[in-house]
Design goal:
This protein is an alpha/beta fold and 378 residues long. It has 2 domains: 244 residues, 3-Layer(aba) Sandwich (Rossmann fold), CATH 3.40.50.300; 112 residues, CBS-domain, CATH 3.10.580. The protein contains 16 helices and 17 strands. The strands form 4 sheets. The chain has a 6-stranded mixed β-sheet with strand order 6-7-8-3-9-10, sandwiched between helices. The longest helix has 20 residues.
Amino acid sequence: MIEIKNVTKKVGNKVILDDVTLDIEKGSLVVLIGSSGCGKTTTLKLINKLIKPTSGEIYIDNKPISREDTIELRRKIGYVIQNTGLFPHLTIKENIELIPRLKKEKSVEEIENATIQLLEMVGLKHQDYINKYPSELSGGQQQRIGVARAIATDAEIILMDEPFSALDPITRTSLQEQLFTLQDELKKTIIFVTHDMDEALKIADKICIMKDGKVAQYDTPENILRNPANEFVKDFIGLDRVWNNPEYIKAKDIMIHEPVSVKPSRTIIQGIEIMRTSKVDSLLVTDKDKVLQGIVTVKDMKSSLNKASSLGTIMSTELLFVNEEDNLVNILSVMNEHSVGYIPVVSDDNKLAGLITRSSLLSVLSEQFLEMEVSVLG
């Protein structure tokens, strides 16, 4: 959809953007984030041809925008800024309908119906707001109108430059949720600038962290949290960020690797000895391909001790397990719901990958806490 290829922007001798290359997929919400002066807003202005690059090119649908008519290009791109940019002398209706009426691609009736629908989509009752002026609305309401106006252009691309940063936390959270819902429904290509990592994590499909006009890391929120590219990114997102977002902590990150397991052909006596030497009170049973078959406990073994049975004949096959890609929230939910102190972890093909126990969880969490303390003291 949008390709930024080797774009550099200089103002005098100062480099604002330094050989930036980004591919932004159609229908995705990409967040540009970084400290002031890193090049976030400059990138938006380049996409909208408010400024021109010193070198490099930007492509939309494989067409270089340098050859596009600037007015026509801007009519195809929605733009939402911090102070909304609403025209104070126009009503809400007139603000939203301005570009659609200029484009003359729809009838007046179609435009008016679309305006009503858009107001409802951004959480405002049309009968209460359609004839009001921007000055009669709160900051949060004005931002909602700004989003509605951007969508009204029928633009496939919407640029948003810190649109919620001046709002109070409650309104800001509400609008973030509203934007996420709208994007989920409409699948626009949105480039959203912010300096707030929490905001980025809440709404982004991909995050581009910028530093000194360069891309420090461009990846999914999960990959950035789990695998920061360098020390700058690690410091920028914060050491404890992943633990404040437990949905990004996967079973494979916290499980005990290579848990004690046995084959179903093992005898009960052998099983008891393996338990004793491994200091466990249950054994996971797998076949020769490591596919999880069942579980046998010390209680099962004691009740069958005088029988010439294999572990495969006494094991329980009704066992709980989680996938290695399941997140911490889901894992704890399953463990609490079924009141279990441990849970096996399997791969997509049901092979035993690991084991999570309450004690291993506490150990991992304690380790993380100690790392944070050391970081603070250091």
